[in-house]
Design brief:
It comes from Paenibacillus medicaginis. This is TrmB family transcriptional regulator. Pfam families: Regulator_TrmB, TrmB. It is a single chain. With 280 residues, the protein is an alpha+beta fold. It is 52% helix and 18% strand. Strands 4-10-9-8-5-6-7 form a 7-stranded mixed β-sheet, with helices on both faces. It has a 3-stranded antiparallel β-sheet with strand order 1-3-2. Strand 2 and strand 3 form a beta hairpin. The longest helix has 32 residues. It is elongated, with a radius of gyration of 29 Å. The two termini are 46 Å apart.
Amino acid sequence: MKSEIIKMLQDLNFTEYEAKAYLALLDKSPLSGYAISLNSGVPRSKIYEVLSVLVERGEVMVSHEDPSLYTPLPPQELIRLKKSKMESSFEAAEAALSHYSYVSLNRENIWNITGYEAILSRTKEAIHRAAGRILLEIWTEEAQLLEPELREAAERGVEILIVVYGELEFDFAQVYPHDSSEEITQEYGGRWIVASTDDREVVAGIVSLGTDSRAAWTMHPGLVMPITEVIIHDLYIYEMLQAHRETLEHTFGPNLIELRKKYNFGPSGYSMAVRLGLGK
């Protein structure tokens, strides 16, 4: 049990000796440096150096008597101190590195992302960077997982337009339900996500294959432009159906089914995931 606690303290930036000294003080304090060495197993030649570091970090307190006595910061206070220091470090690093945000991203590259969680994580990062507009074509399941990031973006003034397959109610976004969601899911054999932020960064790929889900992330203008246009094109279709559904369905069938049949690959439609060798 104690070895597990030592490992946890090491994860909080303690060395093994520091962790042992701190735990010895939690068991009994105040103690002299000599007594801490005996109780913790930290060599006498190292104990005062270790205690000096703990005192400097504010994790152990020392008296001014002779010999000096040491007492630990209570665990709850230690955790609060560590959290505060980590948050401050993260904020400082974010500020210091902010001007490098896009320097390292080669606009000519297309980056492969594998796995459901990795794709969602990359999409969240893109949403976090958005400053003007976010366009999404997405299924309900993934939209709900992205809700906190999208809501935060909306609160900082970013316009959010979502073409959704399924049902979705976001009071902070313009939501456009895509017709025939179930039929399209079956035709294509799964769900995908297409996200465009500020017309300069896109994440696009299949998200319904678990760890075998695949997506691409890029800032390449040659891909950002047409992928963004895919979402805008579906917004056009939505607006036209809202205004002229009866006429369009008279020509092309309910929910424009005849158009889908016309441009499907093969006589009975297809599963994109299967054809790409990513599904069964």
